[in-house]
Design brief:
By secondary structure, the protein is α+β, with helices and mostly antiparallel strands. The chain is 54% helix and 14% strand. It contains 5 helices and 2 strands, in the order E-H-H-H-H-H-E. It holds the Pfam family HTH_26.
């Protein structure tokens, strides 16, 4: 089964910053950014997606990916 996964962990890790720093930089709730970083988010707020795309200078396809669900 396919589902949408967050790629935020890769983007934050590549930038070499903390989740808290990213949340502060985009002026968004830490807990929401942490959930997306850990790929635990069920719904993606449009405002968060817009802020993250602008912050990392990426498109939505770089922030989210549609792929097979990982067996766990």
């Amino acid at each position: 089964m396919k589902r949408i996964h967050s790629n935020l962990k890769n983007l934050i890790d590549q930038k070499g910053i903390s989740i808290r720093q990213a949340a502060r930089d985009i002026d968004y709730r830490f807990d929401s950014v942490r959930q997306m970083y850990n790929d635990e988010m069920k719904m993606y707020p449009r405002e968060l997606l817009e802020k993250l795309c602008a912050y990392f200078d990426v498109g939505i396809a770089d922030l989210l990916r549609y792929e097979d669900e990982q067996e766990g």
